[in-house]
Amino acid sequence: MDPFDKAFRYRRADDLIDLGLYPYFRPIEDSTGGTVVEIGGRPIVMAGSNNYLGLTHHPQVVEAARKAIADFGTGCTGSRFLNGTLSLHEEMETRLAAFLKKEACITSGTGYQTNVGALATLAGKDDILFGDRDNHASLIDGARLAFAKSLKYRHNDVEDLERMLRDTPLLGSGGRLIVTDGVFSMLGDLAPLPDLVRLSKEYKARLIVDDAHAFGVLGEHGRGTAEHFGVIDDVDLIVGTFSKSCACLGGFVAGPKKVVDYIKHTSRSVIFSASMTPASVATVLACLDIIESEPERRESLWVKVRRMKKGFEELGFDVIDGGSPILSVVIGDDRTTMEFNRQLFEQGVFVNAVLPPAAPPGMSLLRTSYMATHTDEDLDRILAAFKVVGEQLRIPG
Fold first, then answer.
1. Which residue(s) pair with 321 in the sheet?
2. Which of 102, 136, 244, 304 is catalytic?
3. Residue 185 designated active-site
4. Which letter does DSSP use for residue 79 in this model?
5. What is the pLDDT of residues 120-169, one digit of tens each?
6. Is there a catalytic annotation at residue 243?
7. Which residues are bridge partners to 368 per DSSP?
8. Which of 213, 228, 264, 374 does the annotation list as catalytic?
9. pLDDT greater than 80 at residue 397
10. Active site annotation includes 310
């Protein structure tokens, strides 16, 4: 059989296009407003971005990126291992390690390749990976690439994880790794880190937390889920991405120096990928400055999240509040969710339609997410659009 046959048989996107419900790959023509973008010549309130602190257009951040390009050019044209390490990279990694209260840090070109590279490097053939079923695709793919045995426990189910840890014998001289998102990207709920820490100690497992959606947002100082729960010293490795609160592209692993050195010298994602661009590195440094010096940004974000949760509930919607800047509104069936999303866009509001398997079966939802820079007018427009479309589609019923 021709390996391309599956591509010619694929109809899901075409079917949505035929129905006028296709919501993906919409080209944004202008985003200088930050919370309001231009799509198809129309202003659209952005309620589907991971730009939680609203730093992509901060003057200090933009100027830092410009200066880095002037000083170092647009790219490094090589991997960190060879010619692609700048003084900026080392400054950024030192700052990140100190910020996260870890000994060392190494960065990669994207958050995805950071997770894939770290897990594939650390998990050997005699090791066992225990991962949450709702982990990000990059963690799942990292587990697939590793030679370790990989097991999935039910989402945030501590009892199921403990059963697996108790009933799964070690393989030869291998060990155990518990791997979880800190904030799960679709539902926006938090991993029960205190329980995972307890189990990691009881069963002598290492704990790795992907804090992509928590970095800069959760915790007193924005250090993420581990700081939020007061267990930052008990998490072995913190990984994350710069594509959310740090307004650019790249990823990091922070932890013990010897472990980071091992990843640095053996991870294929580090050795065989071009390093982060000078502009991205400078952007991260500028964002760290703002995260550390402007805690009011986080406070403003949480005020907006609480306001939107209350607004959705007053309208009668079933909203999932997991404790993050993500509020997912459950609609139910796939077709109605896509139609709701289409009509919201017509009303001038951009959200993300999430269908199974990214959402639980029967719980297709509209993922909304918020920025510290959203205005009261932005939030009012979002709620007004949900009200109009909800009444039109009789949701909630």
1. 327
2. 244
3. yes
4. B
5. 999 999 999 999 999 999 999 999 999 999 999 999 999 999 999 999 99
6. no
7. 327
8. 213
9. no
10. no
